[in-house]
Amino acid sequence: MIDFENPSTLNIPGFKKHEKEWGGCYPPNKISSLDWYKKFENKIEIQINKREFFPLFRLSDGEFIFILGRKFHQYTLKKKINYFFQHIKRSIYYGSTFYSSGRKGYCETYSYFKLGKLRKKFTNQLKELSTKGMLCYNFSPHILTEPYQKDFLNYMNINNIILNESNYFQFYFVPGYFLGEKIQEIYKNKRILIFTSDMKIRNENLKNTLMKFGAKKVDFYKTSLNNPLQDTIKTNKVEDQPDLVLIGAGVGSANILNQIKDLKCLSIDSGFIVDALSDFNLARTRPYYLNDYYHDKNDWF
Predict the structure, then answer these.
(1) Residue 105 has what pLDDT?
(2) For a tag site, which of 94, 170, 189, 286 has the least CB within 10 Å?
(3) Inter-residue contact 109 to 100 (CB < 8 Å)
């Protein structure tokens, strides 16, 4: 279903200026990238109006490294030696071979002695999510992801986690939709619940942005800063039924998604989207987070 030898240009409506910034994608069974995105958009727009649980989980280099360990063979000898010794230093500092940072001030890490158990937990959670919603993979020829993707598919096959045309989509489809051409419509009149760590200024700015985009209400459920894969979520503490859930919790988003079925709504592992909406300058730092309309602007409003 996935042909890693023949990547397609990642074509998302409204992001023409970004097409050369990323290394491509792998649509299932060689359909066009644009048709693949439209299928994704259609599924999201059906589910966002339903009162039922529908999870979306994204996987990129952080998730790949969490399961497979960090790889170095893709780099030149000089970089390989440098990155390897940096890895040793950080592993000693964090007490773990896994550490993942999406932005300054945040690092998700788990004790080396807990990694085996947590990987098994994550595998079971990923299998569950694959049967309930969508998995959006950052499969690409890019050096950050290419070294891991074939091994990750093997890991999925070994664990009987099945990808098919109904559950397999592209990582950047998520910001492509939630920060794309329909950004002025998506959040209007929605009660939005956000699971993320307690970054006060970031969260205040995020709430203000969503309210300006027309959200009816924005609430937060605070997750742990560094190890959300171990969090226990108590949905009975949620005061108002959300119309949309956004989650910014790294690898731990899989853990949260598997505990919020009772909220019965579209639930998105949004990751860096919550940071991009809180700070326009952060949105600039990654491909497919500012659509063409905003590409040369200085703020969301």
Answers:
(1) 66
(2) 189
(3) yes
CA separation for the pair 86, 139 (Å, rounded):
25
168 pLDDT higher than 70: yes
Q: For residue 9, what pLDDT is reported?
A: 94
Instruction: Give the 3-state DSSP-derived string for the chain, with helices as H, strands as E and coil as C.
Output: CCCCCCCECCCCCCCHHHCCCCCCECCHHHCCHHHHHHHHHHHHHHHCCCCCCEEEEEECHHHHHHHHCCCCCCCCHHHHHHHHHHHHHHHHHHCCCCEECCCCCCCEECCHHHHHHHHHHHHHHHHHHHHHCEEEECCCCCCCCHHHHHHHHHHHHHCCCCCCCCCEEECCHHHHHHCCCCHHHHCCCCEEEEEEECCHHHHHHHHHHHHHCCCCEEEEEEECCCCHHHCCCCHHHCCCCCCEEEEECHHHHHHHHCCCHHHCCEEEECCCHHHHHHCHHHHCCCCCCCCCCCCCCCCCC
pLDDT at 58: 98
211: burial class by Cβ within 10 Å (0-12, 13-18, 19+)? middle
CA torsion 276-107-62-178 (nearest 10°) is -20
Residue of 279, 266, 219 lying closest to 46 (CA atoms): 266
Q: Is the pTM of this model over 0.85?
A: yes
Please tell me the distance from the alpha carbon of residue 150 to that of residue 247, in angstroms, as a whole number: 27
Condensed to tens digits (0 to 9), the pLDDT of residues 105-121 reads 679 999 999 999 999 99
**What percent of the chain is modeled with pLDDT above 90?**
95
Token readout for 188 is: 């209007």
Alpha carbon of residue 77 to chain centroid: 31
